[in-house]
Amino acid sequence: MSAPDKNMKQITFTSIDAAIDLVDHVDDDGLEDLCEKHATAQPELIDYILSAAVEYENPDLEGLLIYYFCLLMESYSHAECSLKKIEVQDIESFEQEFLSILETYFEDDNLDLLEEYTGQADLVHFILVEVSTPDEDGTTLDEETGVQLFISMMALISVIAKTND
């Protein structure tokens, strides 16, 4: 397992909270503009993340993937973290190792493994809390969708970490 370079800027809860504040308080047009901005900057990454909804055959996942893609990309932006453009070969080169790490995580329930692998402890914790606890209005994700969202967001965080180390 190769951990990302420790020189990559850490995305803290401060940046995550700032991103939440922005994403949750823009109108539909503003959210669409935000998504378009990030999708234009990272077209291969958004395509990769959105392919999960098709692969898992879960149409409920698509909106969640778009929301969390925008939220995480804004978190990187608020942390003033300049990201390299993710290409198909970046995705292909990280996938096998990522799947192995993920399998070990699910076998051992070892969160430290994901934190070390991604180099982004706060982002990992944030996503874990998001998929496992009810929203402010009491809404919860069904377990299957929660796991699928968790895997997809860990993939996003991981490929960014691997490409920007």
Q: What would your notes on this structure say?
A:
The protein has one domain (13-163). Helix 3 (43-55) packs antiparallel against helix 4 and helix 5 (88-108) crosses helix 8 (143-163). The protein is built from 8 helices and no strands. It has 165 residues and is mostly helical. It starts with 12 loop residues before the first helix and ends with a helix.
Structural features:
165 residues; mainly alpha; 8 helices; globular
Short characterization:
This protein has helices spanning 13-23, 28-41, 43-55, 59-78, 88-108, 111-118, 121-132, 143-163. The chain is mainly alpha-helical. The longest helix has 21 residues, at 88-108.
Mean pLDDT over all positions: 93
Total domain units? 1
Range of helix content:
over 70%
Shape: globular
Helix-and-strand structural type = mainly alpha
Please report the number of helical segments.
8
Give the termini separation: 14 Å
**Radius of gyration computed on alpha carbons:** 15 Å
Largest sheet: none
